[in-house]
Each structure stands twice: as C-alpha cells, then as structure tokens.
Amino acid sequence: MTAESRIHPLPGTGAHLVSGADGRHRVRLRTGRLTLLDAPPDGLVAAIESGPDGDAADYLHRLTEEVRTREAEDASRRWPTARRAVCLLGSDPILDELGGALATWGAAVTRLDADEEPPQDAALVIAYADDARGRRRWPHHDLLPRRGVAWLRAHRDGECVLIEPVALDGDDPTSVQVATRRVAASSAPTATEAWHRAAPTASAPVDDATRVLVLGRLLQIAAAWAQDDPSLDRLRTTLWKLVPALGAVTEHTVLAYPAAPERVIR
What we know:
This protein is α/β, with parallel strands linked by helices. The protein has helices at 44-50, 54-78, 94-104, 138-141, 175-185, 189-198, 208-226, 232-235, and strands spanning 6-9, 16-19, 25-28, 34-36, 85-89, 108-112, 124-129, 150-157, 160-163, 238-243, 248-253. Helix 3 packs parallel to helix 7.
C-alpha cells in the first residue's frame, strides 16, 4: 500500500516540507523549487509536528537557517539594496498603490508632490501626471539620467494613459523628445501639440481595469530596472499606450534624437 504524502510548513520560513509517497523528504521553497534533503533523520516530521528533540532538533535548526539564507538571497535579487531608493512624484491616488506594491517587493519609497525635487540619493524616480500642469517640470527632470538616476514617466492623455520609455542615461528618449515624436507622427500635428501643452484633467478617475493595467506595467518596468533585466533594452525605447474606451493596449517604438547643433551667428 502506498504511503500518504504529507506537507508541513517549515517553521520560521515561507517554505514547506513535502514528504512524498516515495518516502523521501523535499523542501519546497517560496520560489517553487523542490530540493531533496540529504539523509534527514527519522524524527524530522515529528519534530516539526510536535516540537524538535534530539538529532532531529539539530537538523531542523540547520535546515531552517539554510532556507532563511536562501530566502534572503532571493529577496536581494528581487530588489537589490543598491537600487532600493525609489521616489514617486505626483499626487494621484494611483501612486499610493504603486508605492505600497514597490515597498512590498523591497523598495524604500519616498513620495513627493510633482513640483518638488527628488532626493539626491534616489536611484529611480517615477512620475505620474493627470494633466499638462503635472508634467511641467518633466523637462527639468529629464536631466536625471545624466547623473545615473533612472527616470520613468506616466500620464493621462484625456481618458488614455501613456507610460513613456524608461530613461537610464543621457542617450535615452526624454519627455520632450517623446512629445516631439508623437507630434511628428500625428496626422494632425498642430492639434496634437496644442492638446499636449494644455490638455485638461480627465473628468473622471481611472476605472478599476485601467488602474490594474497601469500599476502592473509600472511595477513590471520598475522590477526590470531593479534586477537589471535584459528586457530593459526594449523598455528604454517603448511607449506604452492604454485606450480604456477600446480596451486596447499598444506599444510604440520611440528613439532619442541628437540635439540640434548650436547656431553660429556670423
């Protein structure tokens, strides 16, 4: 008769001890990885169920400490210490939720109004604006990547939401360049530029579906930056657009362009 499989939480960790029908013990880590235990004592399961004793107590202690070390290493990979300082600029409630999500994953979040200056120790600055007024200092903040600060921008465009390419250095598209590219690509450039410069605040807050999609995208980009993920190459040139009225999400390539040469007056 086949023995019954049993699962026990490993005390003091997020892992579980899985005793399979084959009689072997494995630890299922929080990452989902299953690791076979090397020669565990016979009383290991009893030690977990009713309290450690004897050899099982020593083994369980060493096992718990090893799992905690692995969990700490996983957490440091998810959000490295050197990139913990994240600054959020803006007053929209969506930033409240974003700040909570980032903190859950290990970021140290500072929240400031749109007109304030990010702290000198910020490693990543994320701005969210509801209207043209909320973007008025973005050209100033476009200089952040030149001193090694990552710069990520999102804003409502009427009922739509745009998340601009994340800028990591001076060669990445700035907010000014993104706006210029959009005007140049428009079939009605004059109207597009006028709207960008003076668009009013949307009449209603974002709906639940829009909020979830925007938060997910911002968290995805921030985590990719924190982990120096290969996807950053694409995210540095991708403008993300959500049109709630159509339920449509599209991505558009936006490249930086060189600054115009200084004019020489003769």
